[in-house]
Batch of 4 targets.
Target 1
Amino acid sequence: MAAGLNLALQRLWWRRKARHPVLQALLNQPLHAHPFHETRYVVIDLETTALEPSQGEIASIAWVVIERGAIHLNQARYFHLSLENEVGQSAVFHQLTDSDLEQGVNIKVALEALLNSIANSVLVFHNAQLDMGFINRATSTLWGAPLLMPLVDTLQVERKRLLQRTEAIQAGDLRLFQCRQRYALPDVSLHDALGDALATAELWLAMNS
């Protein structure tokens, strides 16, 4: 309840500053809680060139949609982004090279597509703090306001679940791969934005089954 009120107050402040009509409209949407199967979820993943928004860029972004408790791949989107700087050592993790991103779209194109895909939705991430840090920095730079949407973080959901079971959380226990294993989901190849978004969507469905 307190978190919802805080989000509503933040949106009230920032919607006056937003310089993009779709972002402004999103910040004006009322916040309503609905049962799982009546909620539209947009599951998002980023690959970035650093772990701090102030030090890196978004190299790729992808999302998949969950509606009525099912993944709708026909609504999935995946973008490689053009960068101002080289990918550097981050290529070891996301496997994207400078040549891969030479034909990438401008970040504005990808984020406008995202804005147009998330009306009346709850955003889902695995590690929302990291990904939303990059998204909010970008939308604030481009359009004057952060993307203040209701969201779910499967990493934090799983952390809470493990702590409630009085299990000690070991290093690596909250990685997407390890979380999926605890729900008997198949192993997948991670560190591709679209693959990770789909893997997170499957995890969120399993958490609510």
Target 2
Amino acid sequence: GRLGEDHARARKLAEGLADVSGLVLDEGSPHTNMIFMSLADDVAYSTSEVVAHMYNMHGIQIGVTGKRRYRLVLHYWIDDEAVAKTVNAFKELLG
């Protein structure tokens, strides 16, 4: 039953990230509690720079799945506040 909460939060996070300039979400993402996305071609940051910034400045862990590609996974300790924090952190970095 808890997984449904993660899926709902993943949809909320995807909606917020869709408005962030510089991010390109996979078509139809999320399908589960995971969001897959890429950096837009015009973003000057490298994959590792984004990961380091998000973790060092905000404590947000991001999975790398390829060159300029990421995976965000929502689970039991990711709450609504963490979703908002993640959206705001990406807006701050890429805005």
Target 3
Amino acid sequence: MELIKAILLIFPAYVANASAVVIGGGKPIDFGKTWRGKPIFGKGKTWRGLIGGCLCGIATGCLINYFTSYFGNGIEAFTVIFALSFGALAGDLIKSFIKRRIGKKRGEKWIIADQIDFLLGAFLFTYILNKNWFLTNFKLHIIIFLLIITPAIHLAKNIIAYLLKLKKVPW
């Protein structure tokens, strides 16, 4: 039961990350600008994906919270759900920024970083915005469980997105 709760707690981040791919497109977040001759984030990171993914994650978290109250009440719940959703996308953006700096191209595989960037971002933003909630709900064994299971879930999601022609690569 505790592991199912762990999946429900991180699910807004999963949904935000996946939804950004489906909803994405349009104007890049970096507006096509470069820094030191390389794209800042790249064409694949768009405003529509960021906003849409974040909103989908928030909606998912609100729905889960309606039935469970796992995220708390009122502003606390919204803050936690927002941190999980936005943090997931911010983690992906940070990874993309680093990828561009080390010369990796859009869609180029970067094992492990491609699978847990959003998870680490969700953890970090949630910890920053509500440390007490984070420490109460994400004990070390839960974090380890999520770090192990997330790459498998992420890979399966990416393969499905690739088969549906939503992604150009299956990773």
Target 4
Amino acid sequence: VIPVGIQVCFSGVDMVLTLQPEFTGEAPSPAIALIQGVLQLVGVVVSIFLQLGLTRVFLNAVWGQPISVGMLFSQGHKLLPAVGATILMGLAVMVGFILFIIPGFIVAVGLQFVIYCLVDRDQGVIDALRDSWELTDGHKMVIFFVNIVIGIIGLAFTCVTFGFGYLFIVPILSLVQAVMYQSLRGM
């Protein structure tokens, strides 16, 4: 709930800044555009930071180890590598999508466990990218279909509960990702 709340706060401020020019009928001022850009950048970095902590929490849950709220904030030392890995993953997936869509899905599935490799194995960016790719080698189609099925279930549950289900389904979906990572790691 804490990570979702933080993301909602960033989104809410950004939405207010976006709507202001629409209500007044004026073009957004450069100051508002700059504030929006900074807020979006900070939001992405905070999201990556929280994703690192959540990954630690879910890995501990899968391994049957103790979990605490403090774990959400325990992976800060991996923030710069995670930001670098996220940028490289985004570029790789974008290039894949430019190359007729399907390679984009292949790259996205192959690199989906990079953050897990950073947190679990304390790897650098390149090693985490390589390890995630090797981990999914031979399993990409199954992982893709698992992602599709859990995504559809999550979307349906969120819609049926008028959006409130999002608070419950995201941790479950994240736990499924951790279980997939652990089972691939154990193979």
